[in-house]
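Module 6 notes. Inverse folding takes a fixed backbone as the condition and produces residue identities as the prediction. Think of it as a translation problem where the source language is geometry and the target language is the twenty amino acids. Below is one complete input and output pair. Work through it position by position during the lab.
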């Protein structure tokens, strides 16, 4: 296996390594290829190598089977017929299971390297799925032409009809192309409500165009024509940003007689830091990096194009100064979020440079905490549970919605007590993680996974309807009790009927086992109206970190990573609060640099700042 690339070309990793990076590392180990050879290889050549590897595995399995068959033959010749036949039967079943598993691995491996990243089935896959269950191609083409999704026949008849789903008879008539079956309703195009309005803060430049003088009089009677209305034409344009150099010229007075009394005019804008760079540039650096994923060297290049060739050390110093000022506000935001009764949490890795380590770097973790629409980020030196225990125990009796990370249930020594990050009776599961494994089984052509996916689709349709109608927490709980719990019971019944029947290492067997393991936590999500049925909120916020990490690659130190998390907390929080992050960050920096007292720092959180601006 080749040595890893230098830091500047290392592929960044997400919570689990990206499927492309993981597939390439597996390919390097399986085929003994270099990275350059693998990058230059096409899909056709890769499939040939994959087939060769599969044949080698089959040959190895057959060798094991031949050994078992010889042993069984000797046992039969020795008179132990039942034992010999049992050994032969077990070897055959084992060979069959290993072949199925190897086929599934090969399909998933090829899809991870060359297939789409989305869990959504594309048109070709949906077409094959429809035809595999007895649907007619003409029915599928007609549904696609009308812009609707054809109903996929289910291979097994459910014990009871599903709510809001066509009965099996209607499905059969649709699959048979019955002319009497009603055609699917054509989707109506939503009414166009005009152009989206611009924000009121956008500058308006009006140009009034009068009627020429020779046309202002009536052509029939000669009287002047009064103005009855105006015709408006709007054009949106972009004015490039520019740098402004503020020069303050202070007057100095001196006595011309005794030459002893000299006075200098005071500063117009007193600043505690006396920095040459204004807070506008610092705010621009912070917002561009945390909102637009622009690393500092690209921002420096942009300033060069604008006429300011700033040294890299000046840009780095400005970034450090600004983020250090924001840390106390971010701490307030994180503390308020962690004190909530219901918090969603997830993490993603971030590379940290460290010259003391042999590799010159290590992997830290950026944690995202979401509660009541607010988000906070925190950095830990590793993924170990003891690195983040203080944050999880801010509200030890609160509900935590997390994934299947084993550190959540590990016993830790904390201040002389044995504790856990998440109490089992206060843990909430994630429907997306459960559903994702059934998607992988369906992609591996195990069509038995269609049934649980259909039930998950109904659960998420109910959640989408509740959000679209703007239901309160009590109303959503009532809707879940009335509509979601029966579907949940059918899903559990399907899981119970397949548990122990499927090989545990197959995609569907693994999905069923994982769903059973997480069932108690997942079902608890339906017990309160404010609970979500998945942990998607922090995962979506982590995407901001992942996109930025692909550009700036690493953080220079642990302190730098902590300050980066503080900046992300406030920039993302400002966007969630519906305010311009640049305006917010610049105003906060102006206040803090102007002597804002530490006991009033809670007034500068994004939500409170936005409320104060609205009250003015």
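Target side of the pair, the amino acids:
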């Amino acid at each position: 296996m080749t040595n890893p690339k230098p830091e500047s070309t290392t592929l960044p990793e997400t919570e689990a390594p990206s499927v492309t990076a993981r597939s390439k590392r597996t390919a390097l180990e399986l085929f003994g290829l270099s990275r350059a050879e693998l990058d230059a290889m096409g899909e056709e050549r890769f499939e040939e190598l994959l087939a060769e590897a599969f044949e080698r595995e089959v040959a190895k399995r057959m060798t094991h089977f031949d050994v078992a068959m010889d042993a069984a033959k000797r046992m039969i010749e020795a008179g132990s017929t039942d034992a010999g036949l049992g050994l032969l039967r077990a070897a055959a079943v084992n060979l069959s299971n290993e072949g199925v598993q190897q086929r599934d691995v090969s399909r998933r491996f090829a899809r991870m390297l060359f297939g789409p990243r989305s869990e959504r089935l594309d048109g070709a896959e949906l077409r094959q799925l429809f035809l595999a269950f007895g649907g007619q191609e003409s029915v599928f083409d007609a549904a696609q032409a009308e812009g609707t999704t054809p109903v996929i026949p289910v291979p097994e008849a459910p014990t009871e009809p599903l709510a809001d789903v066509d009965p099996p008879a209607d499905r059969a008539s649709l699959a048979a192309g019955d002319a009497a079956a009603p055609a699917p309703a054509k989707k109506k195009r939503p009414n166009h409500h005009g152009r989206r309005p611009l924000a009121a803060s956008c500058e308006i430049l009006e140009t009034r165009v009068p009627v020429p003088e020779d046309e202002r009089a009536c052509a029939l009677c000669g009287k002047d024509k009064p103005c009855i209305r105006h015709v408006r034409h709007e054009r949106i344009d972009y004015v490039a940003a520019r740098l402004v150099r503020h020069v303050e010229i202070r007057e100095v007075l001196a006595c011309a007689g005794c030459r002893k009394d000299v006075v200098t005019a005071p500063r117009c804008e007193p600043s505690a830091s006396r920095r040459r760079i204004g807070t506008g540039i610092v705010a621009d650096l912070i917002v561009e990096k945390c909102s637009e994923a622009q690393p500092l060297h690209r921002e420096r290049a942009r300033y060069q194009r604008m006429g300011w060739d700033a040294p890299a050390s000046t840009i780095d110093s400005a970034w450090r100064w600004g983020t250090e000022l924001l840390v106390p506000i971010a701490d307030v935001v994180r503390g308020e979020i962690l004190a909530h009764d219901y918090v969603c949490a997830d993490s993603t890795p971030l590379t940290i440079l460290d010259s003391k380590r042999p590799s010159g770097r290590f992997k830290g973790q950026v944690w995202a905490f979401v509660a009541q629409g607010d988000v906070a980020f925190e950095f830990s030196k590793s993924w170990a549970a003891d690195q983040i225990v203080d944050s999880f125990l801010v509200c030890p009796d609160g509900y935590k919605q997390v994934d299947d990370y084993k550190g959540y249930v590990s016993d830790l020594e904390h201040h002389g007590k044995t504790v856990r990050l998440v109490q089992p009776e206060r843990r909430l599961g994630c429907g997306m993680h459960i559903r994702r494994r059934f998607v992988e089984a369906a992609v591996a052509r195990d069509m038995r996974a269609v049934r649980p996916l259909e039930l998950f689709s109904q659960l998420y349709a109910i959640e989408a309807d509740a959000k679209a109608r703007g239901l309160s927490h009590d109303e959503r709980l009532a809707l879940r009790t009335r509509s979601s719990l029966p579907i949940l019971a059918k899903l559990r019944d399907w899981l119970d009927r397949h548990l122990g029947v499927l090989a545990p290492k197959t995609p569907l067997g693994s999905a069923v086992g994982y769903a059973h393991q997480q069932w108690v936590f997942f079902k608890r999500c339906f017990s309160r109206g404010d609970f979500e049925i998945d942990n998607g909120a922090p995962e979506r916020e982590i995407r901001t970190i992942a996109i930025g990490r692909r550009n700036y690659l690493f953080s220079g130190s642990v302190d730098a990573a902590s300050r980066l998390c503080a900046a992300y907390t406030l920039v993302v929080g400002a966007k969630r609060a519906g305010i311009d992050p640049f305006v917010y960050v610049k105003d906060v920096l102006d206040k803090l640099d102007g002597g804002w007292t530490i006991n009033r720092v809670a007034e500068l959180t994004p939500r409170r700042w936005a409320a104060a601006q609205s009250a003015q």
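Reference fact for the lab report: Strands lie at 252-254, 262-264, 342-353, 361-371, 374-380, 399-401, 412-414, 417-419, 427-428.
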